[in-house]
Each structure stands twice: as structure tokens, then as C-alpha cells.
């Protein structure tokens, strides 16, 4: 299964009638409506992205290790079950640089028990999303002729399209820029070593994350509700500084058992698969893994 290593406009989330999406690939379950209109910089995923980390960056070893592997698979779980915009699923990322990541995700609507799934694939390159019906199945995300469709402005489309919304958030959660913002903005980081594995724990002010140009998209609504709060994180890395998992707890005004919303990313399949591209034609993006 997993090969660990290889040689918004920002606004508060809007609520809609309950909708559930589960994924094969990005198995996405979205409960409630879409969150804020996500902000994402530039057609290429960042305006003038920098490949250099700040001097004294805590994140530099992890960032460099991730970029050295270039491609990675992830499992993602976002928010508490039953929360607006809850989802869980899988994706594959192609890391161009620390601030630019292409993403391929599989998503599906589940109409309820006993109803079929129609999982499209969402490929994100910059701020452009390409959505392709899975194999020969037609579903809610497909065009009438069962061919792919393109959203030239994914962040705008995400307001009304839960597949694109979840794909954007998945890329945001898993990319190196998120880890860099957490570690370098942290007020303190503790490290626990267990053999070749290191576990880094700390907290980063919500305001700092909301202001970050690469990952502020989701944090701004939470910072608006809880401006003086901090995000707690746990990052587990291997002896080669490659992430194994990242967990964050974000203070939220939502009614949850802990008062927080949790986000989890598990990393796998480093350096596997082909580059993520958006090719023309009826099936432009067979992007999953080398095994597929």
C-alpha cells in the first residue's frame, strides 16, 4: 500500500441544505454548504512564487525533502463529522515549488443509502479546475455529453461546487506552504524523537495564518470568529524529514464537543506516479497513481 519514501474572497461559511459527497480518490463528504469563497493566488497557484525559505526557517528541512520527492499521495479528513463542509478523501499532489502544487482528486456525490455514486476527477492546475466523469459513468458533475468540463476560475466556482471546493481545500491542507506557515509562524515548537521519527507539536496564531498569502483561504473565517486564538498542530516526520502525518485543531465558533475543528493529512506514495497535467480531449486527466 503505502511506500513511505522513494530514492475568497474570504467570508464566513454559508450553509445550504445538507449534501453528502464521498470519494473514491478524494472521497469527499460535504455536509451542509460551502465555506467561504476560497482565495487562491494566480493561474499557476501563486503570483511570483519563491523557492527560497526564510532565513532560519524551522520548516526548511521538511520543505526541501518534500520538493525533492516532487509527487505524493495524501489521505485527508477535514472538520468534524456533521460540520458544515466536512469531507474526507484522497488526492495526489505534484509539488512544483513550495508555493505551487498541482492536485488530482477523485470526488463523488452520494445521494443517500442505496443510491449510486458518480465520482468525477478534479484536477487543479493553478486556479483552473478540470472535472472529468469517472470512466463511463455520468453524474451530477458531468456535462451532457459525458465529457470533461473546465472551470477557469476554480476559487469562484468553489462557492457553488462542492467537488471543486473540497479539491481546493485538499491542496491547501497538504502542500508544503501549509507546513511552512505552521512551523515558521509558531510561538513555540516541541520535538519528540522516537527512533528515526520526530513528532513536532506547537501552536500558531490564527491571525498569522489568516494573513499568510499561500494558506489564508480557510483560516480567515476562523480568525474572524476567534481572532486571539491559535491553531494547535502535530506534525510527524521520518528520518529523511518527509511528513507522515499532519493534524491541526482550529478554534471554531461552531458547536463541537471541543470547540475546535480538526484537520488531518496522511502522506504516502512519495515520488510515485506521473506529472499532473491537463491534456485536451474527452478524458484529459487520468491522474491517479502509477498502479492505476
Instruction: Output the CATH class name.
Output: Mainly Beta
Radius of gyration, CA atoms, in whole angstroms: 18 Å
Low-pLDDT parts are 1-51, 108-116, 136-143, 282-286, 288-292
Number of strands: 13
Task: Give me the side-by-side strand order of the main sheet.
Answer: 8-7-6-3-2-1-13-12-11-10-9
As an assembly, this protein is: single chain
> Distance N terminus to C terminus?
13 Å
Helix content: 10-25%
What percent of residues are in strands?
Answer: 25-35%
Gross morphology: globular
Count of separate structural domains: 1
Mean pLDDT: 74
**CATH-defined architecture:** Clam
Order of helices and strands: HEEEEEEEEHHHEEHHEEE
Q: Give a short account of the largest sheet.
A: 11 strands, antiparallel
Q: What is the fold-level CATH name, i.e. the topology?
A: outer membrane lipoprotein receptor (LolB), chain A
Number of helices: 6
Give the class from helix and strand content and strand pairing.
alpha+beta
Keywords: Membrane, Transmembrane, Transmembrane helix
Region (Disordered): 135-161, 264-292
Transmembrane segments: 20-40
